Amino acid sequence: MSGTAEVAVFGGTGGPARTFTYGVPDGISLVPGHLVRVPLGSRTSAGVVIAIDVPAPAAGLRNADALADPTPVLRAHQLELARWIAKTYRCALADAVRAMVPPGVVRRARTPVRTRQRARRIPAELARSEDDAVRDAEATAAQGSALGSIERSLTAGGAPFLLHGVTGSGKTEVYLRAAATTLERGRGVIVLVPEIALTTQVVARFVARFGERVALLHSALSEGERLDEWRRVLAGEADVVVGSRSALFAPLAHPGLIVVDEEQEPSYKQESDPRYHAVDTALALGRIAGATVILGSATPRVTTWHAARGGELTPVELPVRVSDLALPPTTIVDLRLELKAGNRSTLSKALRLALERTIARGEQAILYLNRRGYATAVLCRDCGYVVACPACDIPFAYHAAGPPGWTTGDLLCHRCGRHGSVPERCPHCGGERIRHLGVGTQRVEDDVRAAVPSARILRLDRDAVRRKGAHAAAFELMRSGRAQVIVGTQMVAKGFDLPGVTLVGVVNADTLLNLPDHTAAERTFQLLTQVLGRSGRGSRGGRGILQTYLPEHYAVRAAAAHDYAAFAEAELAARKRFGHPPFGRLVLLQTAAKQQATVDRRADALAAALREAARGDAEVLGPAPAFAAKKAGTYRAQVVLRGARPEAALDRVEAGPRWSVDVDPVTLLG
Ligand code: ADP
Ligand code: ZN
Known about the structure:
With 670 residues, the chain is of the alpha/beta class. Strand 25 and strand 26 form a beta hairpin. The chain is globular, with a radius of gyration of 27 Å. The structure holds adenosine-5'-diphosphate (ADP) and zinc ion. Residues 389, 391-392, 413, 415-416, 418 line the site of zinc ion. Residues 134, 137, 139-140, 143, 165, 167-173, 322 line the site of adenosine-5'-diphosphate.
C-alpha cells in the first residue's frame, strides 16, 4: 500500500453517495479528481478521489481496485466548487461530486468497455446553425459600453455582472462578443440557458459563431451523446459549453466567462440533492476560477437586482431594442365589470373586438393563460360536492379532449396524473346537476373559435406538446401564416419570435397572485412581461390586453406599463415587510409519510427542536401541511426557517434522513 485516498463513492445510480477512505495499491499514483474502482461491501463501485494522504485507521483499510481512467475527470477548481455546494446546500460532498460526473462515465467505470473508438454521437441541436450576419455589425452604444466593462474584467481576475435589457436589446450578441474575447485570451466559456427545447435559437447562434468549439450539455441528450460532448470538453477539443444547469460542471481547464441567460428562471434550481441554484453556483465558480459571470435578463429576480444595487454585481443596462421597435401599448381590463355586465365568456368585450379586428386585418394573435384542460373542477350544483383525486385530495381537472390515448371527457389529477371519469350522478347527494367550473386552455379555444370562426386556431399546452415536435410544428404554422391564433400556457411565452403577431391577450393575469408564495408577484410580473413581449415584433407594431380581477395590483400595473423599476421597488418593499429574500434567507424542510399521524408527529418534533435552537438566527414557521399536502397517497408537511442565519439553527439541530432540506428555495409551494 502506498498512502491513502478519500473517495466519493457512487453506490448505484440512485441511492446516496458517500465518502470512504481507501488504501492506494502499490504501483498506482492517484491525484484528486481521478476516477477509481473501489470495493463497496461485496460489490465494486465507482468513485472520484477527493483528497489523498488523509489520516486513516492503522488497520482494516481496504484498497482501491484500480484506476478507471488515467486522466482526472474533475479539475481542482471543480472539487473546490463541490465543497462549496456541499457546505452551502447542506448535502454530502459525494452527492455534489456525483452531480459533476456524467452518469455514462460512472457506469463505464464500474463495468469497463473495451471499445471509449466509435464515431462521435452528435446532438441534433448542433446541426442547426444560422447564418451569422451580425458578427461584423458595429455594436450599439449600449452594447459597446457593456462590453467595455465586461472585457476589462476578463483581464482583471473576473467580476460578476447583471446584464439587464428587454428582449431584443442585444444581450445575446453581448454574450457572443464577450465569449470571443475570452477565447482569444485562451480561456473557456460556459453558457447556461434555462430550457434547451425553447432556446434553440441561442444555441444555433453560438454554433454559427464558434462551430466545432461548441459542446452541448443537457439532460435530454442520450447518455452516449452527453458522454461524447463531455469528453470533448475534457480533452480540450471544445471550449464553449452551452447547456442547461448541469453544464456548469463541464470540465473546462480554465473557465474565463460564465453566462447565465434568463437568470430569473426557476429551472435553475435543482429539485433533488444536491439542491443547488445554478445562478449562485455560477457566481461561486466565478470567484473560485477567477472568471467573469454575466447574469442576463429582461426581468431579473429582485434579489439579483438588489445585489447589483448594493454593489455585489456590476449592473449594465441595454435600455432599448436594437431594432428600435416599441414595446406594445397594453390595456388592463377589469373582469369584475365584465361579470357585472353579464359577460360569462372567457373573452372580455375588449379582447373579443381586438381579436376580430386582428384577424380581419390578416394579422395574428397569441392568447395566454396558465391553466391547461377545459375546467379547473367538476362540482355538484346541488350540494357543492367536488370530484377530487383520491390520492391527492385536490379537485380533478376536466379535459374535454385529452391527449392521445385518452377517452373524451376524462378527468385528470394535475398533481399525480391519475385519471377519473365524470360521474353521472353526484356520489354525495345523488343529484344530476354536475357542472364544471373555472377556465382552462380548451375552454378558451372554444370561445376563440366562436369569436373568429374563419381563423385557424392552435392550442399549445402540456397536453398538446406531449406529441413530439408539437412546439416546433405550431411555431412553423404560425410563421408561415397558415394559422392565425395560438391559445396556450407558459409555452407561448418563450421562443416565439413571430413578426405577424400584433395582439397578445392574457386571459387571466392574476391566477398566480393569490398563491401563498414569496415569489408569486414576481413570477406574475415576469410571465406577463415575457408574454406581452411576443406582440409587436414586426413592422406593424402591436398591442396587449391584460384581463384581471386585480387591476390595481402592482405586478399587473407594472407589467402593462413595461416598468421594471416600479415593479422592483414595490416588490422589495413587500419583501422587506415579511423578511423575505433578500432581507432574510429561507430554508424549506419537508417530510412525507403514508400516515397523517406520522407526518404530524415528526413535523411537531422538528419544529419544536428548531424553535429551541434558533436563538434569533431565524424564525421557525410551521409546522404546516405542504402546499401539496397529499400527493399520490402520501401526506406531506413542512417547516420553514426564515432569517439572517437559518443555517446556524440547522447546525444545532440535525433534521435527519426523513427530511429534505432546501436552502434558498425558489418556491415554498412544493
Ligand atoms: P436579446 O438577447 O436581448 O433578445 P439579441 O442579441 O438577440 O437580443 O438581439 C436582437 C436582434 O438584434 C437579433 O436579431 C440580433 O441579431 C440583432 N442585433 C444585436 N446586436 C446587433 C448590432 N450591434 N447590430 C445589428 N443587429 C444586432
Ligand atoms: Zn392525484
